[in-house]
Each structure stands twice: as structure tokens, then as C-alpha cells.
Design goal:
Length: about 90
């Protein structure tokens, strides 16, 4: 969810995009438009993100639970030099 928020704030929209840089304390930094319209947009985006619900029914599905791990562990091989940067 944070990736979507960061992408939407950093996406190139032109010089007058109206994006406001906000630091950790919530103080507005350099803005391209000024005013409270930008902060309203950020609040809208955050409220949309808080409404996102992830369904976890997949992990309880019979078909998913019947899957088997077929991965193979790598074979033990010859160990390399103790210091790869030392001279031969």
C-alpha cells in the first residue's frame, strides 16, 4: 500500500502537479501549488488506502493446501578459498 502512495505522489505530472512534500512531523515543505487542496488530496488517498481489504481465503482453500513443495536443496560442493582476496 505504501508503494502505491509513494508512486502516486512521485509520479511525473508536470511542474504544476500540486504535490506537497511533507516531512515526518506533517509540516509542508516545498510545494508546487500551495494551498490546502494538496493536503485534501493526500487525505483522500490515505482514506482510500485504509479501505483496502486483502482476502486471505486463498490460503484456506483445499486446492492451495494440497500443493506440495518440490524444491531441491543445493548439493554440498567444494568450499572456496577462505580469503578470496589473498594472492595465489
Amino acid at each position: 500500500m505504501a508503494v502505491i502512495l509513494i508512486y502516486s505522489l512521485k509520479s511525473p505530472k508536470g511542474a504544476d502537479s500540486g504535490v506537497v512534500a511533507v516531512d515526518a512531523q506533517g509540516v509542508a515543505g516545498a510545494s508546487a501549488g500551495g494551498g490546502s487542496g494538496e493536503s485534501d488530496e493526500i487525505v483522500k488517498i490515505l482514506s482510500m488506502l485504509s479501505k483496502v481489504a486483502l482476502k486471505t481465503d486463498l490460503f484456506e482453500d483445499r486446492l492451495f493446501l494440497s500443493l506440495e513443495d518440490l524444491s531441491v536443496s543445493p548439493a554440498e560442493g567444494e568450499m572456496g578459498r577462505s580469503n578470496p582476496f589473498s594472492a595465489y
